[in-house]
Amino acid sequence: MFAVFVTLLCLMSVGHSAPLVCEQLVKPLDQLDLQHLMGKWAVIAGSLKNSDSAQHFNRTDSVTVDIQNSTYIQASRVDDTCQYRSHNFQGGNLLTLREGNFNFTGTLLNTSCSDCLVMTLDLETHNYKSVDVYFLSKRRQLEPKEVEEFTAQVECLNMPPPIVMDPTKELCPTEGSTDQRLFL
Ligand SMILES: *[C@@H]1O[C@H](CO)[C@@H](O)[C@H](O)[C@H]1NC(C)=O
Ligand SMILES: *[C@@H]1O[C@H](CO)[C@@H](O)[C@H](O)[C@H]1NC(C)=O
Ligand SMILES: *[C@@H]1O[C@H](CO)[C@@H](O)[C@H](O)[C@H]1NC(C)=O
Ligand SMILES: *[C@@H]1O[C@H](CO)[C@@H](O)[C@H](O)[C@H]1NC(C)=O
């Protein structure tokens, strides 16, 4: 957790001499509003530091994230097949979850879009570290200026340009899939 905090500080200090706008854009939200997190989100775009992960994301047609209390279901459509993952996460001012040897730490950043989430996701194993930044929305298609704000955010974070998902691709259903045992 401390390492993540330091990472964020480093990322933020990169923007120190940059215009104030970067400081605004990379500001983590102080407090997670779990109520706001609830429901079904579509991933609009992602910026992934690891190039293999980026290529995989680029081949993914759509990603749905359904958050119910402290359970989160991720449904990815790849080659017309829906792949499901379900997790419990811990709230607080960071979202944390573990999968195998991986620790994931999510931090929400400020966004001017009221039905969107911007989340940095730090992932770490004993010998590997990477970071992804995702832009999610309750809407399927956003205004160009909303995507531009996200593009500016990932630039401020020194991350690769976002891969924007095709909004015409079908989302996978998550209804009735809250039974975790289906996915474990
Ligand atoms: C994503 O895939 C398209 C072709 O399907 C390719 O043109 C583009 O360069 C890829 N982008 C990344 C970041 O891999
Ligand atoms: C979420 O939690 C509330 C209160 O603890 C409970 O009433 C509700 O059924 C839960 N919803 C789901 C989808 O688990
Ligand atoms: C978050 O962004 C909004 C709109 O872009 C801005 O008005 C607000 O001051 C920002 N909040 C913080 C804490 O930076
Ligand atoms: C993952 O988190 C757990 C609990 O916080 C910690 O004990 C473990 O060392 C972490 N693993 C890595 C690879 O950071």
Automatic annotation (TrEMBL):
Keyword hit for Oxidoreductase: no
Protein origin, superkingdom: Eukaryota
The keyword Membrane belongs to this UniProt entry's keyword annotation: no
Predominant localisation class: secreted
Signal peptide: 1-17
A GO cellular component annotation in the UniProt record: extracellular region
Protein location: Secreted
The entry's keywords: Glycoprotein, Secreted, Signal
Protein name: Apolipoprotein M
Origin species: Amphiprion ocellaris (Clown anemonefish)
